[in-house]
Amino acid sequence: MAPRGEDSTIRNLPQAFINKKGELAIKSNENMMFTPYHAFSEGLIPFTCYPGERGPFKHKMGYVDRKGSVVIEAQFDDARSFSEGFAPVNVKGKWGYIDKSGKVVIQPEYEDAGLFVNGTAVVSIEGGKKAYIDKNGKVILKVETGHAGHFVGGIAYLRQGHKYVFIDKKGKKVFPEEFEMASNFRDSLARVRKDGKWGFVDTTGKVVIAPRFEDAASFSEGLARVKTDGRWGYVDKTGKFVIEPQFEGAGDFQHGLAGVTLNQEDKYVSGYINKTGKFVWNTGLVDAEVQEVPGPKKR
User: Fold this and answer.
1) Residue 4's pLDDT band (boundaries 50, 70, 90)?
2) Averaged pLDDT of the chain
3) DSSP 81-147
4) Looking at residue 290, what is its pLDDT?
5) C-beta atoms surrounding 11 within 10 Å
6) What does each C-alpha distance from 275 to 136, 221, 241, 269, 279 come to in angstroms?
7) pLDDT tens string 59-109
8) Which tens digits make up the pLDDT trace of 22-48?
9) How far apart are CA 232 and CA 299, in angstroms?
10) Cα separation of 235 and 208, whole Å?
């Protein structure tokens, strides 16, 4: 529901994209289908094509630009967004990476593959282990875990047993404190959970926003969506609410807008708000019984 990616095209529906004015920008067809799991990144987005009979594993994936023009032909069994010029693709059950010309730059040999962030990516190797690789496909660190985050500023989260810690590129702990859950650093802060509540730490390990939220997402454009008393709102980096908790569903801010769903007396309104919390585009009120926006449920 929330806009994502680096382009002004805003993700709206599983089968179409609108611009900031709410105008239809790209619509799917029989040979070009989109899903809510992908968004525009670095000017491209994966699309799905069914060259013949539909069914599991009978599709191929490629990439289109913001005009809806095919840039990389549908040829992969699965595909993910571009990041730092590379995109993970699946060929016959194995993951590798391509560049924006569609050329394979890291051969498909991994059980799974994540996006490149700051020059490294997390991949799954034999035995359920994880490894960090560089853009040449060279392994720089192996870890005995199924949960490993991106290196940001030389620090990444890692699951050790039933706890989460933060490590450096040598695999050593950088903070003594352990958490129930942790996430990647974003906007210089990482969300962590302790005693069932979410808060944020900085890159020195200092708790800058004490864990007090029912749920929380990473910071984006200086604001983070957090949940309290069953409603979502937005806080700044001091933990102060700049948009009070009021939404049934909420997304991250991208390009100054965030996708939200608001419940008003069993009627829903979904759309995009700016950083003052005002709607700049919305669907209007819709009866709860016919609401189709993911997330909210009638109370």
Assistant:
1) very low
2) 86
3) --BTTBEEEEETTEEEEE-TTS-EEEEEEESEE---BTTBEEEE-GGG-EEEE-TT--EEEEESSS-
4) 36
5) 22
6) 40, 10, 11, 18, 10
7) 899 999 988 889 999 999 999 999 999 999 999 999 999 999 999 999 999
8) 777 777 766 777 776 778 899 999 998
9) 15
10) 12
Question: Starting from the edge strand earliest in sequence, which strands make up the sheet with 10-13, in order?
Answer: 10-13, 16-18, 24-27
Output the pTM of the full model: 0.78
Q: What DSSP line would sit under the chain, residue for residue?
A: ----SSSS-EEEETTEEE-TTS-EEEE-BTTBB--TT---BTTBEEEEE--SS-STT--EEEEE-TTS-EEEEEEESEE---BTTBEEEEETTEEEEE-TTS-EEEEEEESEE---BTTBEEEE-GGG-EEEE-TT--EEEEESSS-B---BTTBEEEEETTEEEEE-TTS-BS-S--BSEE---BTTEEEEEETTEEEEEETTS-EEEEEEESEE---BTTBEEEEETTEEEEE-TTS-EEEEEEESEE---BTTBEEEEEEETTEEEEEEE-TTS-EEEE---EEGGG--SSS----
For 40, the token pair is 């525009």
